[in-house]
Fold each of these.
Amino acid sequence: MLKAMIDQPMLDLFTNIESREGLFLWMTMLVSFFFGFVIALLLRWSKIRRLKRQLKEVEEREKSLQSQLISTQQQLQARSSELQEESQEKVALLDRVQILEREREQQLQEVVELNRQHEELQNNNRHLAATISDLNDQIVELKAANDRLRARAGSHTDLPASADHKAYENLQARLSKVEAHLAQLLQENERLRHSGAVAAGTPPLVQEIDTVEVEPEPQIQAEKTVLYDKIIVAERAQDDLTQIDGLGSFYAKKLNSIGVFTFEEIANWDERRIAEVTKAIGYIPGRIEKDRWVEQAAVLAAAKERAMEEGSTEAQDGADTYEAVAFSRETAAASSTSQTLAVSPEGKQPTDLKIVEGIGPKIEEVLKAAGITDWATLAATGPGQLKEILEEAGDRFRMHNPYTWPLQARLAAAGRWDELKTYQQELKGGKEN
C-alpha cells in the first residue's frame, strides 16, 4: 500500500511531462551519465597508472634483493669452503703433532738404547785395553826369551835337538799364538773404532809391538760427541712416576731427562724447585701444586720404604693412603671443575654422537638415519656431505654448521680427550669463534 502511494506521484510526474521536456530531461540524464562515466574512467585510469608504477618499483626492488641474495649465497659458500679447508688443515696439523710426538718418544728410546750400547762398548774397551796391556808384557818377555834362545842356538848349531831346543820351539809356538790373539784383538778394536764407539780423538788402545817399553794404559774420553747431553750414563734407581695422579708417561720422561727418577726426590721439592721443574718440563704453572705431586710422592715413597722394611713388594696401605690423598684433591677441585667443560671417556660409547659440540639428540637421530652411527664414521665423513644431510632433513636443521664435527669425532675416536676438551672450549655451538 505504501509502495503504491510512493510510486503513484512519480508515475503522474512522468505522465504529465511534455515531449520536449521529456527529451530535454533524457538528454540531460544522458549527458550527466556520460560525464560521470568519463570522470570515473579517468579516476580509474589514474589509479591503474599509480598501481603500475608501484608494481614496477616493487619488481625493481625484488631484482635488487635477488642479486643481493645471490651475492650473499656466493659469499657464504666461499666462507664455507674456507672453513672446510681450515678444518682439514687443523686435522692435518694435529695428526702431524701426534706423529712428531711418537717420533720423539722413539728417538728417546733409541737414545737410551744407544747409551746402553755405548756403556757396554766402553766396558769392552777397558777390558780389551787391560788384555792388550797384559799381552804386550808377555810379548816383551817372550821376545827377550826368544833373543836369549837364538843366542844360545847360534852357539850350539851343531848339537842335536836338546831340551833347550824344545823349549825354544815351545816358546815360538806360544809367541805365534799370542801374536794371533793380539792380531784378533787389534781387528776387534779397529772395528769398534769405526763403529763410533770410541770417541773422536781417543788415542789408540795398542801400539806397535816392536817397542820394548811398557805401553801406557789407554785413556778413554768421557765425551759423547754422538749422543750429546741426552744420554744418561749411570744406571740408577727409578720409580714409576706415573703412579702420581695427574702425571702421565710423557711428563715422567721429561722428569727423567732432568734427573728426577724417584718419589723421594719429588717429595723433597720446595716452592723454588717446583718453579724450576715447571719451567724445565714446560708444564702449566701452578698445576703441580693443584695436583699435589709432592704430597702424593711422599705417600708413595713412605709406602715403598715400608714395603722394603717388611720385605714385601706390596704396599696396599700406601695405596689406600694415596687414594685418600687423591680423593681429597678431587674434592677440593670439584667446585672449580664443575664450572668448566668436561669431556671424559667415562660412560661414553663410540655410538654417542652427542659428545661432539653442536650435535643434539635430534641431529644425532638424523645422522644415524643417514648411516653415521659412530665417531669413526663421523670422522670419515666430509663437512660438505654432513651439510647436505642436514639440508635434506628439513629447514630446522639447515642453520647448523657441521664443519668442526669430523675433527671433534676424530679426536674422540683417537681417545685424545684433553685436546678435544681444549678444542671444544674454543667453539660456540659447534662453530669456531
Note: Strands lie at 427-428, 431-432.
Amino acid sequence: MKPNYFLLTVFLILTSPIYGQTSRQVSGVVKDSTGAAIPMATIKLLSVTDSSTIIANTEGRFIFSSITATQFTLVFSSLGYLPLTRQYTLITGSRTVELDPVILKSDTIALKGVIVTNVPVRIKEDTIEYDALAYKTRLGATLEDMLKKLPGLEVAKDGSISAQGKQVSKVQLNGKDFVSGDIKSLTRNLPSDLVHSVQVIDDYGEQAKLTGIKNGESQKILNISIRKDKNHGYFVQGRIGGGFDAFPPTKAADRDGRYATSASFFNFQDKRQITVTGEINNTNTSLFDINGGRKGPDPFGDKQNGIVTTRAVGLNYRDDWGKKLTVYGSYSLAGNLVFTNSSMIRDNLSVQSPSNQKLASTRNDHNVNHQINFNIEYRPDTMNFFKIIPVFSYGGVRSDENFRGLVQAGNSSRTLISEYSSYIYAKSSTPNFGMNVLYNHKFYKRGRNFNALLTGGRGTNEQFENPTYHYLVGRTGAPINQLINSNSCKDSISTSFSYLEPLGKRSYFEFRYNYHNALTTAMRMTDTV
C-alpha cells in the first residue's frame, strides 16, 4: 500500500489573544407542584455543540458534567407529568452552575383498563435496571446497539460507556465479573437478543461486598443478565466486510482495499461462561487494547493517523470447580502494524529571521500486547473467604522511520541553510507482573469483620533507540549516530489490615493499618558512534 498524505501547517509568530470554550458543570433538581422530588425524570439537553439525555437520581437531582455552550435548551419529562421546555443562557464565568428548581405539573388522564406487562426501568437502592425487551433493536444487533438506546447511558465512538455522567469501569455477566480488560470486547460482540436486562450499579469494591459497609466514592459498573432460555448452549457470530477508500489516490496502483472481519463464540452453561473473540482488519479500529505504544523521537509529534492493520484474539473463562472454589480469568493477544506517510511545511514569518522548513517522513510501527488475568476464589466455609489474583502483561513495540528535512531562508532568495536525511530505529518492551492476596473473616457477631490484603508487583520498561543523521548541507549540534539504552524498574509491595466492630445499627468502629513500599530504579546510557 502506498497512501499519500499531505499535511500543511503554518505557524505565525504573532501576538494575538486566544479564546477557548469553557466547560461547565450544570446541575439542578426536578420537583412537582407540592415541592416533592420527582425521581427518574428524563432531561434532554439540546444546543449547537452538545446533545445528550440523562436521568435524574432518586432525589430528583441531575448533573450535566461538561457543557461548553452558553445557550442551550433543556426538555424535562416524566411519566404522569406534563413535559416542560426551558431555554438557558449562561452569563456567569463560574465552572459550576446550579439551576433554579424545575417544577413539573401533573398530567391527569382518565383511562380505561390498563394491563402493565413490562416496566422498562426499575430502581433498587444502588442499582438501575433496564428491561431489554422494552428496547427494540434490529436483527443481528449487538449489546452496544442496545446500550445506545438506554436513557442515562452514553456510548462514545471508541466504545467507552458513561452512566449518569460517570465512566463505566467494569462489566459483569450474570452478576459475575467479565475479567477481560476491554468492555467493548463484550459490548461489540454479544448479540442483543441474548440479553434479559442491563443493570447500572454503584459499586464500592470487594471489601464493601464482604463487610456491607460502603466507604469512599463508588464506581459505575454494568451487569448483563442473559435470558434463562439462552443461558444454555453455544452461540457463534461472525462479520465480514470489504471496500475501497472513499477518496482514491491519483495512481491506480495505489488503490488499496479495506477489509474488516470479526468472529465471536459464546458458551453459557449455568455458572460456566466461555467467550472467544477475534478480529482482523485494516480500518484503524480494534476491539482490544493495544498498550505497546510508540517510542522514539518523532518530528511531527504523537500521531494517531496512518494505515493500521490489526490482529487480535481474546479468551474469557469462568466456572465453579466444586461448591467452594471458583476460578475465572482471561487472556488476550493483540497486535497491529501502523504505516504512516507524512509531509509538513512550516513557515516562520519572524521579521528578524524568517525561514521555511520542509519535512517528509515514512514510518512503520509494530505493536504487540499480551494480557493475562486470573482469579481464584475459595470459600472453605461461610465465615472465611480467600481470593488470589495473579496478573501479567507484556507490551512491545518496534519502529523504524525515514525522514528528510530541508531548511531555507524565508527571504526572496530562499538561501539553503541545511538539508539532511535521517533514519531512526527504536524498540521497547514493558513486562509487568504482580499478585494480590485477599483474606476476609466474618465473626459470629453480625458486622464484626477482619480483612487482610497483600499486594506486590514489578513493572519494567526497556527501550533502545538508534537515531542516525546524514547532513548534505549545513551541520547540526546533535551527534550524527547515537545508541541510546534506557531501562527502568519499579518494585512495590503493600499490605493493609482492618478490623470492624459494630456500635449499634448505624455506627461502627474500624481499626486499619496500611503499609506501602516502592523502589524505582532508572538508567540511561548514550553512546556516540
Note: Residues 109 and 275 are 49 Å apart (CA to CA).
